[in-house]
Amino acid sequence: MSTIVSVPATATTAQERPHVVPTGFQHPLDPLTADEIAAITFTVRHHITSNPELDSIKAVKFITTYLLPPPKKAVLAYLGIPLAPETAPEPPAQIVRKAEVDFLDVVNGFSYNVILSLHSEGKWVVDTFDKLPDGVQPQISVEELIQCEKIVKADQNVQDLAKAVGVLPEQIYCDGWSIGYDDRFPQARRIQQALLFARFSEHDNLYAHPMDFVVVIDANTEEVLQIDFPPHYKSTANGPVLSVPKTEIPPLSSAEESFKISNRERIPPPKKAFDFLPDLMERTEEFKPREDIKPLHILQPEGVSFSMDGNELEWQNWKMHIAFSHREGIVLSTVTYNDHGEIRPIIYRLSLAEMVVPYGAPEYPHPRKFAFDSGEYGMGTMANELSLGCDCVGQIHYLPGAYVSHSGAAIVIKNVICIHEEDNGVLWKHTDYRPGGRTQTTRRRRLVVSMVCTLANYEYIWNYLFYQDGSIEIEARLTGILQVYAQQQGEPNPFGTTVAPGVNAHYHQHMFSFRIDPMVDGIKNSVVEQDIIPIGGEKSATGEDFNFAGNAFTTTETILEKEGGREYDFAKERRWRITNSARKHYASGKDVGYSISMKGGITPIMARSDSWALRRAGFTQYPIWVVKDVEGPKGGRMWPAGKYVPQTRAQPEDSVGSWVAGKLPVKDEDLLVFLTVGTTHIPRPEDWPVMPVEHLNITIKPQSFFDKNPSMDVPGTKDGKSVSAFSGQSSADACGSCH
Fold first, then answer.
1. Active site residue: 66, 337, 458, 594, which one?
2. Which residues cross the membrane (predicted)?
3. Which residue, 107, 194, 210, 599, is most buried by CB atoms nearer than 10 A?
């Protein structure tokens, strides 16, 4: 197995790039290959066995192995991208390819972090080897989540409890979850909670059959530590009353005692099937697929309009690097726009940095349900292998991804990132309505870079959309199956919706943090906060001299000077833009910039500020955070909830809330912007058994960046393949004109 990153003969090599010193890779931000991952983990094992001081490490379980990105300025110099307007790029410097590894010693329970570098002879060498502080846990692996179910199914107490409500051992299934917050267990133990369900036939929708207890396991020792029985609600004349006096989680106890404390009866899982696979629905209900929907094909007879060079893409003046990340999913880097021959940088790096899903039921152990799906599991490791014609339709280009297994071998997802073009309606249009006037219609095409991830019951579809007018959109689509819990017949549920008999879907939120490392015409940027203000305010009256008609409104702008988080103000329709004061628009006189619109996703966090969830997910408190980028030996400021998220009980030092406490200057600086968006999900019966897609989005649009609409040169559209739906008339025969 090769340990050298080779350059394909057909690719643009380092020697062919005008600003580049020779290297052993095609692009400095290319993710680690499967061969590299294997070589890196082999090097780590060899380092352990060849160093006597490390002989206490007995059983290595690899958790993460990923690229440690080179310094930003070195990458920009390599690519020939200047740091400021109207300046030459910095001279290139040698870039050393580095990797970062997290692993566990299963025997002693300790965690370790290793940094390695690739030397010129093609060998990986260990640079640093650090034991992490006690209780610090790297992310939970896919293999651990799968093993959780095996541990639970093999436990005799679990089998006996399941049997008591009519579930056989082979019918027991569970979803492994992070523990959330539970201070009954020491942080040194590697803890998961298991949410239990029954599956009564092969491929049966197990979420239709929730069970009435929750199991806690240790993933290292592979043992069940605790079985919790949530209390339930009873209807009274004064409203719902819980079966226990308080919602606080009780002390550790036996399963028998835990059930006794819950003060309620056992609840058999509902037996009715609610399947989503068509062949099963035909057997379990009156089901017949629709027959009145006809094929719709997407054809590009002359091929796609984008080109790929390894992981670099070019399309409609855009150029960017696209990479797989085990944690973030999709990472877009060095995003530039060719403005009539001038290559203008816009974003250095864009990705999902974190997310959290806090649930709203207060009774134990449900408050533990607030998973950090990116920081605790890794969005990339949960990504689907995409299917042509199903997940992605049309002419598709796929990129692969690879992450490490416990053994150190690579797990490869062949088609993990989907790239394609879509028609997206009208880009711009105008008709001169006067007699003899002409019209021009230009249709909008967009580039889609997407990934689909399954987090147990939920699916997330991540779309990064690029438009011909220089705009960018981040879109998250949510689908999949609701997380549900068992409900007694007639039981009230003040914190959820009964979506089917015996099936309670708890209220919850999905909160996302997207990280933008901007370089709008260079890396020295500022953030401007703009409010829209009615003239005169509430104390003024229509008829006054300065606003006689009462219609006037204007804008006020404030440049953010120091690090911090900012509130959204609906009354002022607050918005932000990222600017570069070193370049101004020729007409507006404004600093060039890109505006950020978050109206498609602004959501306030519902948990209290001192809640378990907010102690760990402080990034949800503001829709926008602005901090200075501070690069160190292990990269810059990346993770708003901290680098190591599982089992934290407070906001770590390396998180956004701690960063902003430094109040570093962010005006005309190399800065970072973290955007928090989300949705509050009050489940509907129509979300069951599989939820129709829900959307939220962020738009990033040029503002005083281009001289004028940069899409004026997009050709007008008159599709000769379009026909009348019923008459057979073609577009060539139709009345009217596109241009």
1. 458
2. none
3. 194
